[in-house]
Amino acid sequence: MRRTTIALLAALEATVAVLVGLGLALVPLMLLWAVHFGLAAPIEVFLRASADIWLLGHGVDVVVQLDPATAATVGVAGADEPFTVGIALLGFAALTFLFGLRIGRRATATGTPIVGAVSAVLVTALLGAALAVLVAHPIAQPVLWQAAVLPSLVMGGGVLAGVAVAFGRSGWATDAATSAVRDRLDTLPFVAWAGIRSAIRIGVGSAVGVLGVAAAMLAVRIVIDHPTIIGLSQTLGAGVDGGIAITLVELALLPNLVVWAGSWMLGPGFAIGAGTIVSPSVTLIGPVPGLPILGALPPDGAPLGVLWLALPVLLGFGGAVLVGRGKRERDREPWWATLSVGGGAGVVAGLLMGALAWGAGGAVGPGNLIDVGPDPLLVAGVTAASVGVGAIAGAFAARARSRGAGDPDDTARRPWWRDDRAGASAEEPGEVPAGRSPDAANAERTPADEAETVELDGLTRGSHGR
Q1: Is the CB of residue 293 less than 8 Å from the CB of residue 253?
Q2: Hey, which end of the chain has fewer CB within 10 Å, N or C?
Q3: In whole angstroms, what is the distance from residue 76 CA to residue 78 CA?
Q4: What is the pTM of this model?
C-alpha cells in the first residue's frame, strides 16, 4: 500500500475520532436545547459548548468570564472574576487514545507505521487548534496552544501503544524509518535492551494493576452508596433531560474517579477543593460539586486503610518475578543490572501514574474549586518508591530462583553481556566464525572434513580413507 494512501487513511480515522467525541458531547446538549429550552435558545451556544467539553476532555484549559448576573446566581466567591476550568474529562481522552491504538495497529500492519502516526497526530493537532479558534468567545476561551498540543499528544500516545503492541505480536516493520530505529536499538548492549524491556513491562503492569483494583473498589463503593447517590440526584431536581446530561458528565468523569481511587490506595489521596483531603488515613471535606456520584466518597478515614499501601509493592514484586521467570540468560548479570531493572520499573510506574493524576485533576470553578484531584508529583513519587521496592525484591528473587534451577555443571555459559539469542558460538561444529568468509573456512578444513562416505545398511558414515 502506498504511503499516501496510508497517510490519508490515518488522517480519516483521526478525523472520525474527533467527530465521535464531539458527537458524544453534542447529543445531550441538543437534548437540553430541544426539551428544556424548547428550541428557543441560540443553537450556536450549544455547539460551542460541545467543542469546549471535547477540548476539556483532553486537558485543555478554558478561561471563563461570567456576566455579573450569572456570577451572582452562582453564589461562589470569585465567580465575577475570570477563572479557569482545567479538569480533564478523561472519558473523551480515553476514546481518542483507543482510536489512536487502532490507527497504530493498522498502520503497522501495512508496513509503514511512522507515516500513519505522523498523519494522525498532525490532523488531530490541526482539528484541535481549529476548534479553539472557531469556538472562541468572551465567556469561554480555550487556550489555543493547548488545544493544538494536548489532543495530539493523547492521539500520539495511543498510536505509539498500538505500534508497540503490533511489533510485539508480528515483529518490526520493514520501512526505512522503523529499520533505522531498530538499528539504533540493536547497538545497545543486550543486558541494557533486555533490562529496558523488562522495566517497562513490570512498570506498566504494576500501574495497570493499581488502576484495575481501584476500578473494582470504586464499583463496590457505588453499589454500597447507591441510596445516597440516588438521593442526591433527586435533590438536584434536574428533570429527565438534565438528569441525562448529568449522567453523561459522570460517565465522562468515570476514568478520573478511577485515578482518584488509585491515588487514594497509594496513600496521597485527592482533594475536592482547596484545603480538603480524602485519603486512607484522614478525610476532610467541605462543600463539594453537585454531582450525585460524589456521594460514594468515604465519609471518614478507612479502617486499616494503610494496608492498601502494600498493594503497589506486591504488584511490583509479582510483576518482576513473572517477567524474570525463565530468563536464564540474565542470571549471571551483575547485581547493579538487576537493581536497575527494579528501579526502572518503579520509574515507569511513577511516570504513568503521575501523568494520569495530572490529567485527572485541575480546576473546576472559582474559589475553593481551583484545586480538585490528586497531587501528580506526590502520586508519582509514592508510586515510583513503592513499586520500585517491590520490583527490586522480585527481580533479585527471580534471579536467585533461576540460579538455583540451573545446571551446576554448566560452565560454558555465555557472559552476561552477550545475546544468547544470537545463536551458538562460532567455535561449535558446522558454524563459520564471525568475521570470516565461508570460502576461507572451507580452505582451512582438515582432510578429515573432506572424507568420503560409503553406504552401510542404508545409512551413511565417514570412511576416513578406509
Answers
A1: yes
A2: C
A3: 6
A4: 0.78
CA geometry: angle at 149 spanning 145 and 150, to 5°?
115
From the list 213, 219, 260, the residue with the least C-alpha distance to 358 is 260
Give, as one character, the DSSP assignment of residue 302.
P
Grid coordinates of 157? 500516545
Among the listed residues 323, 314, 318, 312, the one whose alpha carbon sits nearest the alpha carbon of residue 201: 323
**Which pLDDT belongs to residue 416?**
44
Alpha-carbon distance of 125 to 150, in angstroms, equals 8
Nine-digit cell string for 287:
462543600
Q: What percent of the chain is modeled with pLDDT above 90?
A: 30
Among the listed residues 311, 324, 332, the one whose alpha carbon sits nearest the alpha carbon of residue 395: 324
**How is residue 182 written as a grid cell?**
531498530
What contacts 36, CB < 8 A, 6 or more positions away? 239, 241, 242
Residues 6+ apart with CB under 8 A from 431: 423, 424, 425
For residue 379, give every residue at least 6 positions away whose Cβ sits within 8 Å of its Cβ, in sequence order, or none. Answer: 263, 266, 268, 353, 354, 357
Interaxial angle between packed helices 90-109 and 113-134, expressed in degrees from 0 to 180 and rounded to the nearest 10: 150
Secondary structure element (H or E) that encloses residue 198, with its range: helix 190-224
**3-state secondary structure (DSSP) of residue 430:** coil
Apex CA 94: angle with CA 91 and CA 95, to 5°?
90
Closest C-alpha among 259, 245, 255 to residue 268: 259
Region of 282 please: left (phi>0), alpha (psi -120 to 50) or beta. Answer: beta
Burial tier of 60 (Cβ tally within 10 Å: 0-12, 13-18, 19+):
buried
Query: From start to end of 68-219, where are the E strands?
Result: 83-85, 140-142
337: pLDDT strictly greater than 90: no
Q: Which of 218, 253, 63, 224 is nearest to 142 (CA)?
A: 63
Q: Mind listing the pLDDT tens digit for each residue in 199-224? A: 898 999 999 999 999 999 899 888 88
For the chain, first and last CA: distance in Å? Answer: 61
C-alpha dist (Å) from residue 251 to 50, 290, 336 = 16, 15, 45
H or E, element range at 148: helix 144-170
Say which residues have a Cβ less than 8 Å from residue 456's Cβ, sequence separation at least 6: none
